[in-house]
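DM from R.C. (forwarded with permission)

"hey, sorry to bug you on a friday — could you get me a structure for this? deadline for the figure draft is monday and I only need the backbone to look sensible"
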Amino acid sequence: MTIGDQISETLMVHRGMSYTDASRRAVELLDKTKIAEAAKRAKQYPFEFSGGMLQRAMIAQSLACNPSVLMADEPTTALDVTIQAQILELMAELQRTENMSIILITHDLAVVARMADQVAVMYAGQIVESGSVDDIFYRSSHPYTLGLKEAMPTNKRDGKKTLTPILGSPPDLFHPPTGCGYFARCPYAMAVCEHHQPAEHHLTGSDAEHQARCWLQHEGAPHIKALNQPGADQRD
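My reply, with the result:
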């Protein structure tokens, strides 16, 4: 199927449009996602598109039915840095012009920092920390969030920053742990973490609603100095 026919099919099935009207709308959507010569491109096949153009075509198809929420799962995977920036800029522009929300699913924290207002960090099928983007990056309160930040590369040239990987493997969710899913890999793990699920703790001093699912936030937990600086495993 051509790119135009794939987009048209969505409009015919879900909007009841005729083939002619759907084809015209498909060209408009391709043009909206900044694909040059949209009418010509609509008649081409996916193998004739580059990776960045395919992402734009997929976004055009996603916008076909005027969604109020667009869910984008790793939308910049396998794209070079320049094309990645263009796709993110396009998504931000469409969010404003189409008056829609975007749920962005990604492992790339740089993309999160650039695009997100609210962030949910997930591990082993659970949201372990959530809050504003500033909360997550500057007031991190779950060891997994801290581990992700420590594993990020940096462009600083002083040579002082080293990548610290998160050791171990994720749990088997066919046989989930009885306690905290991050227990086996957590440098701050306590005995209570192994067999008891932590509750969600609301954290104060944040710009928005900031929550973390961690026993370290319990009022009876030992205090860890500089919790937002991984590697400082110091307890009072």
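R.C.: lifesaver. The longest strand covers residues 126-132.
me: no worries. The two ends are 64 Å apart (CA to CA).
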